[in-house]
Write a structure and sequence with these properties.
The structure holds two protein chains of two kinds. Chain A is of the alpha/beta class. Chain A has 13 helices and 14 strands. Helix content of chain A is about 40%, strand content about 20%. The model of chain A has no long low-confidence stretch (mean pLDDT about 100). Chain B is about 40% helix and about 10% strand. The two termini of chain B are about 30 Å apart. The chains are: A alpha/beta, B alpha/beta.
Chain lengths: ~300, ~280
C-alpha cells in the first residue's frame, strides 16, 4: 500500500545511483512530488526553478538536448496546464524529457477542484510520440519509472497522491504499451458479462466491483491499462471478443482519457460491443478521496451498477 | 573547426549577398517573414563566422557552441547563414517552406542538422538555452549557448521566468540577444506592449547588459568579445536594429513583418542590395 508518487521518489533515488545522467527539476513542490530525497542526496543534479512551470519544461528540454535525462515534476494540472511548452519543447523536439504529474484526479481529496488534474491524459494523448503511463501500484510505478528513464523520448507519468493497494503479484513485469489482467474469477470463464478497464487510482475499485459481481455469479474481469498512449488496442479487441460489454473507469474527465481510448479501439475493430464509461463529468471539489469516488461515480458500487444496468 | 575569420570589411558584402538570398527565398516560397530576417541577419552572420565554435561538417559535435533562434520566424536569415557556412548547399535555400523541405517555415531540428532546437512558438528558446547552459556547467564543458529573441517575443511570460532563473544559476556561459527592431505583427512594440526600460529590467534581474547598434559589425564584435571569459552573470545584448534593414521600402514598415515580396518587389529589393556589393 503506497502512493505511486512515493514509489516514484524511491525509484528516482535508485536511478540517481545507477544513472548519472538523471537529473530532477522542481517548481516548488519537491516535498509533494517526492523528489526531495533525490535533491538532498544529489544537490548538484537537482534544479529548483520556483513556481514557473513553463520555464521548467524548457530548461528540462535543454538539459535533455545535452544528454541529461531530466525528470520534471509538479502536480499533473500545473504541468499539463502548460501544454504549449510541452507540445513544442518536449513533443515536437522529441526531447528525452520525463514529465511527472503527481496528485492526479479526484483522489487528491481535500484540496479541491483547482488542484485536480482531470484533463491531463486527454491533452497528453494528443501529442505525437508522447508515452503516457499511469501505474496502478507501487511495483508497477517503480518499473514504469525505470522504463521511462531507459526510454529515449518524452514520457508523461501520471501519479497519485493517495496510497494504492497492491494489485500485482511479486514478479510482475510491466510492459510498456500492454494492458494486463489484474483480476478474473477462478476458474476463468470463457465468456464474461463485462470486462472492466481501469487505470491508476481506479484499479482497486474495479477489482472490488468484480469480486462483488463474481459472488453474484456475474462474470467480470479487470484489465489494468498502465499505458494510456500508445494504447493497447489489441487488449480491447480481445476483451470485446469474450465480453458482452466493456466498462471503463478512470479518475479523469470521461472525455479524452481511458474511456475514449477504449471506445476508439472497440469501434475501430468493429467489435459492436457496447462501452460504458465512468469518469469525472464535472470539475472536482473538496472531500475525502473515497467520498469523491462515491459522489462522482468511480467507486465499486458504481462500477457494479455499470456492469449490471440494462443498456 | 572554427569558421572562417573573414576580414570585417567583407562582412558587409557577405551580409548584402545573404540579404539577397533571404529576399529570393521568401519570394520563391510566396510566404515568410522578411522584416525580422533582415533585422537579425548581420548578428547571425557575425556570430556564425566570428564567434561561434562550430563545425558544419560535424553538427552534433558535443563541444560546439549552441545557438537557438527563439524568434523562429526569422529562419530565412539563419538558413542563409548556415548555407554560407557549409551546412547544406546554397541551392537548397530555394526549397524554403516547400513540402518535404528540410527548411521548414520555422526551424526544425529533427529535419535539418545544425538546428539546435525546433522553435517558432514564441517565448520558449531562452528556457531551452538555459537548460543547455546548465548541462554545460554540470559537465564542466566550455561551450557557450546563445539565444536570439525578438523584442515582441519578450512579451511572453515564459521569457521572464527564464530571465529570473538564469542569474540564480550563474550561467555566465549563456548570452541572450534581443533583436530590438520595434516591430511586431499588430504594430510597434512600444505601442502594443512596451518593454521599456528593457536594459534596466534585465540588469535588475541580474544580467550583464549591453546595448548596441545591431547593424554595426564593430559594435557587434565588441558586444561578444568578452563572452568567452565571462564569469558570474549571464549576458544580455540588446541589439537595436531596423526591421527590413537593407531594403529601403521594407525598412521600419510593419507590413513587411510577414509578407512575401512579389517578383517586381523582390527584383527592386535585390537591385538595391546589389549596389551594396560594388
Amino acid at each position: 500500500m503506497k502512493a505511486t508518487r512515493e514509489a516514484f521518489g524511491e525509484a528516482l533515488l535508485e536511478l540517481g545511483e545507477k544513472k548519472p545522467a538523471v537529473v530532477a527539476l522542481d517548481a516548488d513542490l519537491s516535498k509533494s512530488t517526492m523528489t526531495l530525497a533525490f535533491a538532498k542526496k544529489y544537490p548538484e543534479r537537482h534544479f529548483e526553478l520556483g513556481i514557473a512551470e513553463q520555464n521548467m519544461v524548457g530548461v528540462g528540454a535543454g538539459l535533455a538536448l545535452c544528454g541529461k535525462v531530466p525528470f520534471i515534476t509538479s502536480f499533473a494540472c500545473f504541468l499539463v496546464g502548460r501544454l504549449e511548452p510541452l507540445r513544442i519543447a518536449a513533443a515536437y523536439n522529441k526531447t528525452n524529457l520525463k514529465i511527472v504529474g503527481t496528485h492526479a484526479g479526484l483522489g487528491i481529496g481535500d484540496d479541491g477542484a483547482s488542484q485536480m488534474g482531470l484533463e491531463d491524459v486527454a491533452a497528453m494523448r494528443a501529442l505525437p510520440g508522447m508515452v503516457v503511463l499511469q501505474p496502478a501500484d507501487e511495483l508497477e510505478a517503480k518499473q514504469a519509472v525505470l522504463w521511462a528513464a531507459a526510454h529515449d523520448g518524452p514520457v508523461y507519468l501520471r501519479l497519485t497522491r493517495q496510497k494504492l493497494a497492491d494489485c500485482h503479484k511479486p514478479g510482475y513485469q510491466f510492459q510498456m504499451g500492454r494492458c494486463d489482467l489484474v483480476w478474473a474469477p477462478e476458474p476463468a470463464p470463457k465468456h464474461y458479462q463485462a470486462t472492466i478497464f481501469a487505470s491508476g487510482g481506479t484499479v482497486g475499485e474495479a477489482v472490488k466491483a468484480a469480486q462483488d459481481l463474481s459472488a453474484r455469479q456475474f462474470a467480470a474481469q479487470v484489465v489494468n491499462a498502465a499505458t494510456l498512449a500508445p494504447f493497447d488496442e489489441e487488449a480491447v479487441r480481445a476483451a470485446a471478443a469474450v465480453s458482452e460489454r466493456l466498462v471503463s473507469v478512470e479518475d479523469h474527465n470521461v472525455n479524452g482519457g481511458l474511456g475514449s481510448a477504449v471506445c476508439e479501439a472497440a469501434a475501430a475493430a468493429g467489435t459492436g460491443v457496447p462501452v460504458v464509461r465512468l469518469g469525472a463529468r464535472s470539475f472536482g471539489e473538496s472531500g475525502t478521496a473515497q467520498e469523491l469516488y462515491d459522489k462522482h461515480g468511480l467507486s465499486a458500487p458504481h462500477i457494479v451498477e455499470a456492469c449490471l444496468r440494462n443498456l | 573547426m572554427t569558421t572562417a575569420t573573414a576580414p570585417k570589411t567583407d562582412l558587409k558584402k557577405t551580409a548584402a549577398q545573404l540579404r539577397i538570398a533571404v529576399i529570393r527565398m521568401i519570394e520563391a516560397a510566396s510566404s515568410g517573414h522578411p522584416g525580422g530576417s533582415l533585422s537579425i541577419i548581420d548578428i547571425l552572420l557575425y556570430l556564425y563566422t566570428q564567434v561561434l565554435r562550430h563545425d558544419a561538417k560535424k553538427p552534433a559535435w558535443p563541444d560546439r557552441d549552441r545557438l537557438i533562434l527563439s524568434k523562429g520566424h526569422a529562419c530565412p536569415a539563419l538558413y542563409a547563414v548556415m548555407a554560407h557556412c557549409g551546412y547544406f548547399p546554397e541551392s537548397e535555400l530555394m526549397t524554403l517552406r516547400k513540402l518535404g523541405s528540410r527548411l521548414q517555415g520555422h526551424p526544425d531540428r529533427l529535419r535539418l542538422p545544425g538546428i539546435e532546437a525546433s522553435t517558432g512558438s514564441l517565448g520558449q528558446g531562452l528556457s531551452i538555452a538555459l537548460g543547455m547552459a546548465l548541462a554545460g556547467l554540470m559537465d564542466k564543458k566550455d561551450y557557450r549557448v546563445y539565444a536570439i529573441l525578438g523584442d515582441g517575443e519578450m512579451q511572453e511570460g515564459q521569457v521572464w521566468e527564464a530571465l529570473m532563473a538564469a542569474p540564480k544559476f550563474k550561467t555566465a556561459n549563456l548570452t541572450v540577444i534581443i533583436d530590438s527592431n520595434n516591430g511586431q505583427i499588430d504594430g510597434h512594440v512600444a505601442e502594443i506592449m512596451s518593454l521599456d526600460p528593457l536594459a534596466d529590467k534585465l540588469a535588475s534581474f541580474g544580467w550583464n547588459v549591453k546595448a548596441i547598434d545591431g547593424h554595426d559589425f564593430g559594435a557587434i564584435g565588441g558586444a561578444f568579445a568578452a563572452d568567452r571569459t565571462a564569469v558570474g552573470k549571464p549576458r544580455a545584448v540588446i541589439a537595436h536594429t531596423i526591421k527590413g534593414k537593407g531594403v529601403s521600402f521594407m525598412e521600419n514598415q510593419i507590413a513587411w513583418h510577414g509578407k512575401a515580396p512579389n517578383k517586381e518587389e523582390a527584383d527592386k529589393a535585390v537591385a538595391e542590395l546589389t549596389k551594396g556589393l560594388s
